[in-house]
Amino acid sequence: MLDRLVDIGGCEIYMRQMGDKGPVVVLEGGIGERVDYWKAVQTGISRFARTISYERAGNGRSRTSMQPRNIMDMADDLERLMQHTGLLPPFIIVAASYGGFITRAFASKYSAKTSGLLLVEPSHEDFFKEAAKIRSSGDWQAFMNLMNNVLKDPGALEEWRNFDMNGELARNLGFPTEIPITVISSSRYGEIEKILMLLKKDDIEKKIALHGEWAHRYKNIRHIITDRCGHNVAAEKPELVVNEILKLCRLNSGGLI
After folding, report:
1. With contact defined as beta carbons under 8 Å apart, do 213 and 127 qualify?
2. Are the C-beta atoms of residues 128 and 160 closer than 8 Å to each other?
3. Of 28, 71, 178, 202, whose CB has the highest number of CB atoms within 10 Å?
4. Between these two residues, 148 and 219, which has the higher pLDDT value?
5. Domain count, the chain
6. 3-class DSSP state for residue 164?
7. Alpha carbon of residue 203 to chain centroid
8. Which helix (H) or strand (E) holds 247?
9. Whole-model pTM?
10. Taking Cα atoms as reference points, which of 95, 41, 51 lies closest to residue 236?
11. CATH number, domain with residue 210
C-alpha cells in the first residue's frame, strides 16, 4: 500500500495505490469521503487489480483548490492524477453516491480511457427534487440541514452546494453506450435510513425507480437491487462491490482473471 500527496498542477491530492497486476480500477468516493471508506474494497480487489483511491480537492488531506470546481473540472483532476501514477488506460471506474456524477463526466470526456463503470448507490439528478415533493417545508429543511451540519471539508461543502448544477451537467452528459455499466441500489429501509438519514420509505422506492429508468434507457446498464445494506454499500457489504468489480475486470481481460 502506498499513500502519498501528488501535485496535479497547483493542487496536492492525497491518494492511495494498491495492487501490482491486472486491470486498473479507480475508486471515486461520495461527498466528503476519505480513502479509508474504500479500505475493505480496495484491499479485496488489489489481489487481481491495480487500484487507486483518492480524496478530491478540498476533501480530507487534499489541498483546497483556489478555483470553483464542477464535475468536469473534477474529471480533469482525475485525468491528471492518473497521468501522474503512470498507470495506463483503459480504467474501470467505481463510484459511490455523488462520485457517480464525476465518473459520468470522466467517461464522457475521456471515453477512450474508460472500459467499465460500477456505480454504487449513485446520486441521481432528480432525487432531491422528488424527495421535496413528499415533505412539509419543516421536514424538508431538517433533511437539508442534515447534510449542511455533517459536512466539514470545504471541498465537500462546495460539492453539496453545487449539487443541482452538477446534477444538470450529468443529466446532459448521459451515459456511454459502448462499455459495460453496473448500478447497485439499496432497498433497505431500517432505523439508520429512517432516524439517522431522515429518509422516508418513498425516498428509497423513488431512488430505485430512478436508477431503474437508467437501465431501461441504456441497454448496457445492469441494475442490481440489494436489501443487505444501506447507502454505504462499500463499507457495509464490501464483498458485494468486490464481486461486481471482479466481473467487470473479467469482461475487460477476456475472462483471464
Report:
1. no
2. no
3. 28
4. 219
5. 1
6. helix
7. 19
8. helix 238-252
9. 0.96
10. 41
11. 3.40.50.1820
**C-beta atoms surrounding 172 within 10 Å:** 9
Q: pLDDT-derived band of residue 255, with 50, 70 and 90 as boundaries?
A: low
Q: What is the 3-state secondary structure (H, E, C) of 192-204?
A: HHHHHCCCCHHHH
Q: What is the mean pLDDT of residues 219-233?
A: 97
Structural domain including 92 reads 2-252
Neighbours of 47 (CB within 10 A): 13
The Cα–Cα gap between 93 and 115 comes to: 8
User: CA–CA separation, 71 vs 122, rounded Å?
Assistant: 14
Question: What is residue 161's predicted lDDT score, i.e. its pLDDT?
Answer: 93
Between helices 99-109 and 71-85, what is the axis angle to 10°?
A: 70
DSSP state of 63: P
Residue 250: CA count within 13 A, CB half-sphere = 8
- Residue 257 forms part of a structural domain: no
User: Which candidate, 189, 188, 197, 180, places its Cα nearest to that of 226?
Assistant: 188
At 95, list the grid cell: 463510484
The answer to whether 155 and 196 have CB atoms below 8 angstroms apart is no
For the segment 106-122, the average pLDDT, to the nearest whole number, is 98
DSSP class of residue 146 equals: H
Mind giving me the DSSP string for 75-134? HHHHHHHHHHHTPPSPEEEEEETTHHHHHHHHHHHTGGGEEEEEEES---TTHHHHHHHT
pLDDT of 150 strictly over 90:
no
Q: Is 234 inside any structural domain?
A: yes
Strand ranges of the sheet holding 12-18, from the earlier edge strand across to the other edge? 2-7, 12-18, 50-55, 24-28, 91-96, 114-120, 181-186, 221-226
CA distance linking residue 180 with residue 94, whole number of Å? 12
Phi, psi of 236 (to 5 degrees): -85, -40
